[in-house]
């Protein structure tokens, strides 16, 4: 276990947003197995997504992992900021970098480290391009906390760079708006997260990451380089992967298959 990477990943999480997404929206960006019954499925960076609950209802053994599951108050605060109705409008109206930093400053009592401005702009573009209905995300958010309060908790507090699961124990992994655009900010954390997902996957199991880094998008150059480096390692190790379009928008998805 690399404590340094875990610390760095938690720092990224403390300075990011948790989002909410339901199964219908997730199906637009992730191609889930057709037959879910009995499959062990892992959602990396689940936030308050209800995808895990809905997969469980379809007879899958679904688990979500997120560092913030260890502090439900911080998780709620992070999601409330993401779902604020006027956030996108404020971002679009910002006139300069300082305005953006003020708009997206962490609320009182949370980590006050500022995001790099390049990440703020990339995130603003991502929110604009994904165009997932805010009302549906609010509904997912409400359902998540209701299930949590009932004790219905297929949620594990942990990090992607050190998954608390056995080798070859998971059939399918996915990450929506977690590994990218956040973990990819740190090359070492991102690469280790991919390694960990491949470790826990069974042979022929898949990791799907959405969005993937389109080299023509506004992702900053360092993130493009980190994404490109990850693909070069997969090629070197002869791990099959495919960058493909989704039905949601112009941003691609990365599909990695464990040999």
- Strand line-up across the major sheet: 3-2-1-4-5-7-6
Structural class: alpha/beta
Oligomer: single chain
CATH topology type: Rossmann fold
Helices, by number, come to 10
| Helix share bin | 40-55%
Mean pLDDT, all residues: 80
Uncertain stretches of 5 or more adjacent residues: 100-116, 129-133
Written overview of the protein:
A hairpin with an 8-residue loop joins β6 and β7. The model is unreliable at 100-116 and 129-133 (pLDDT under 50). The protein has one domain: Vaccinia Virus protein VP39 (Rossmann fold, 3-Layer(aba) Sandwich). A 7-stranded mixed sheet has the order 3-2-1-4-5-7-6, with helices on both faces. The protein has 10 helices and 7 strands. The chain is globular, with a radius of gyration of 17 Å. The chain is of the alpha/beta class.
Fold topology:
Elements lengths: L2 H12 L8 H4 L13 E5 L6 H7 L3 E5 L6 H11 L4 H7 L3 H7 L13 H14 L3 H16 L5 E2 L13 E7 L10 H14 E10 L10 H16 L4 E4 L8 E5 L2
Parallel strand pairs: 1-2, 1-4, 2-3, 4-5
Antiparallel strand pairs: 5-7, 6-7
Give a concise summary.
The chain is of the alpha/beta class. It is 42% helix and 15% strand.
What features would you highlight for this structure?
alpha/beta, Rossmann fold, 259 residues, 15% strand, single chain, 7-stranded mixed sheet
């Amino acid at each position: 276990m690399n404590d340094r990477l875990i610390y760095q990943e938690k720092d990224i999480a403390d300075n990011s947003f948790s989002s909410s997404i339901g199964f219908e929206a997730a199906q637009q960006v992730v191609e889930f197995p057709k037959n879910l019954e009995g499959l062990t499925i892992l959602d990396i960076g689940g936030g308050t997504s209800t995808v895990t609950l809905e997969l469980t209802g379809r007879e899958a053994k679904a688990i979500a992992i997120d560092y913030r599951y260890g502090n439900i108050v911080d998780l709620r605060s992070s999601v409330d900021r993401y779902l604020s109705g006027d956030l996108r409008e404020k971002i679009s109206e910002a006139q300069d970098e300082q305005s953006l930093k003020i708009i997206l400053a962490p609320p009182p009592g949370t980590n006050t480290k500022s995001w790099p401005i390049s990440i703020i702009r990339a995130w603003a573009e991502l929110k604009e391009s994904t165009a997932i209905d805010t009302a549906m995300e609010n509904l997912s958010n409400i359902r998540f906390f209701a299930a949590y309060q009932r004790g219905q908790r297929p949620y594990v507090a942990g990090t992607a760079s050190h998954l608390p699961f056995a080798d070859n124990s998971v059939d399918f992994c996915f990450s929506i708006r977690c590994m990218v655009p956040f973990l990819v900010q740190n090359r070492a954390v991102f690469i280790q997260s991919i390694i960990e997902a491949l470790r826990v996957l069974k042979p022929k199991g898949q990791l799907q990451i959405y969005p993937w880094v389109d080299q023509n998008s506004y992702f900053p150059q360092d993130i493009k380089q980190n994404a490109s480096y990850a693909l070069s390692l997969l090629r070197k190790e002869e791990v099959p992967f495919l960058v493909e379009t989704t039905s949601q928008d112009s941003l691609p998805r990365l599909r990695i298959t464990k040999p």
